[in-house]
Amino acid sequence: MAERFQTQTDQHKILAQFPEEFPVIVGDKTRLEQVFYNLLSNAIKYSPAGGEIRISGQIRSEHIIICIQDKGMGISQDDVPHVFDRFYRADEAAKNTQGAGLGLYLSRAIIEAHKGRIWVEPRPDAGARVCFSLLREKGFTNNLLNEETS
Ligand SMILES: Nc1ncnc2c1ncn2[C@@H]1O[C@H](COP(=O)(O)OP(=O)(O)OP(=O)(O)O)[C@@H](O)[C@H]1O
Ligand SMILES: [Mg+2]
After folding, report:
1. Taking the model in full, what pTM does it have?
2. Which residue segment(s) compose the domain that 144 sits in?
3. Three state DSSP letters for 66-77
4. Ligand 1 site residues, Cβ closer than 6 angstroms
5. How many folded domains does the chain comprise?
């Protein structure tokens, strides 16, 4: 996935950081890829000056967490409660970029349909960081997700 997106931009360096033995995630592959697509296109769109985009995975006992972080304009504290609303776009975004305000709304619907959570970690002056969690499939520890999303 990082490689696929890297072909869309010379401005950004897309890095993926996953632990070696990443757990299997059972879910709708097409829809989960759509979530990656939405979050990565946001990271690119909202960091027009470029910089690093980091995709990282963490393993917890019951779930995994994936975060996508950029070095762009970031999401202001005031916008944090609204960015997952349907058609919501921050003023800065509306002024400078095109979009429907649907990517995060749809991503949340997909993640919640998988019994996961999705949230924004505000990092003023340091870009945006959007994370989601998905339940682990107990008893498996191969690299399926790594292979399918990297
Ligand atoms: N990585 C990010 N950096 C800064 N702001 C972001 C980022 N991701 C989302 N946002 C803010 O959240 C709003 C909602 O994002 P969302 O992806 O739902 O819509 P969009 O990107 O505006 O349009 P669409 O995804 O439908 O093309 C954006 O308009 C922007 O204000
Ligand atoms: Mg979007």
Report:
1. 0.90
2. 2-149
3. EEEECCCCCCCC
4. 38, 42-43, 46, 70, 72-75, 83, 88-90, 93, 99-105, 128
5. 1
